[in-house]
Amino acid sequence: MKILVLNAGSSSHKCCLYTIEDWLPSHPPTPLWEAQLDWHDQEHASLRVKTEREHLDEALSTVSRSGALLHLLKTLWHGPTQVIQSPQAIDVVGHRVVHGGQDYSSSVVVTQEVKAAIASLIPLAPNHNPANLEGIEMMERLLEDIPQVAVFDTAFHSQMPAVATVYPGPYDWLEQGIRRYGFHGISHQYCAQQAAEILGRESKESERLIICHLGNGASLTAVKNGQSINTSMGFTPLEGLMMGTRSGSMDPGILIHLMRQGYSADQLDHLLNQESGLKGVSGVSHDLRVIDDAIAQGNAQAKLARNLYLHRLKSCLGEMLMSLGGVDALVFTAGIGEHSASLRAETCEALAFLGLKLDPVLNENSPVDQDIAMVDSRVRVLVIKTQEDWAIAQACYYRCR
Length: 401
Ligand code: ADP
Hints:
alpha/beta; Nucleotidyltransferase, domain 5; eight-stranded mixed beta sheet; six-stranded mixed beta sheet; binds adenosine-5'-diphosphate
């Protein structure tokens, strides 16, 4: 089965093609073809395509979003990066859809009704759901009745208990859909499943996991017996942890104060989503690697940003810990979680009171899908490479085989 995965973000579009034969491999295979489109502004983008034998880098100018996506897709069956004869060789297309609202608790085959639901959620995910719909409609035009599967980033959190979903505002907010949804669900669910594999299947029923997805966007999820019971992102992916450019949770009174000073909704949106977090506080970068370099040069603002990031992470870990009533394994994933040994060490140090003991050698040794706690640690510590695209491909396989 040839499965095309489309992962549309607000300023990028990642795609890959997997081949799955008669059974699902236990480890994620390397895609046959991977492509990424990064938008620099409304008309300019760069395209990178990778296959086992070829790499392609191209600058695209004066193109529309759909024109650029079509150009990207054509590299599958045209030119040096060609891996299939024609688009008809694709058996199923899987889409990461950021917002599935209250109704979708698992992946679904796309129908008119599903498309209408994704469209109706555009006000809640204005930067993502339109791009997701665009991808679905483009594949319909290209391949007419090809099966397509929508995999929602909110789905894993859809069964959270009411206390984790309701905001303490007026009750009718709930009827308007103003509630906590949670995001990064594809990654959190994938990591929960991988953690169960690494820890041994027999322990799955009693597992209490805290999954730390620390990338540019960042969120924590408390997982009990394979289910999300609390998560740090809420109505939008702005709530919770301090992130690369997003503030995370703030006193809402600050927004009221700024609005009274004349800030518009768009200006506040920009400030909180693009100019805050590590970038806003450090004044240096959203990237922890650049911040670490600045700290080494003696930059005090960069040091404050990193300390604040860790402080917020610890506070939020405390919340997840209390939701679970303890923790059996702490999971680190995404850019920072997978690659920053120092941040993992500092986080684990804060949990030493639980009997958590990190193995410093394993921690420094670029671990991938590995337990890096000492043998006698009372809490396991796992580093898991998140594989959202592979998780989407697996969902397609189960829905359409
Ligand atoms: P996204 O949320 O965009 O998918 P990623 O999960 O790829 O992001 O994470 C990107 C971030 O990971 C970078 O901005 C950087 O802060 C961080 N990162 C990547 N490698 C390292 C590293 N070796 N040390 C510290 N941080 C790293």
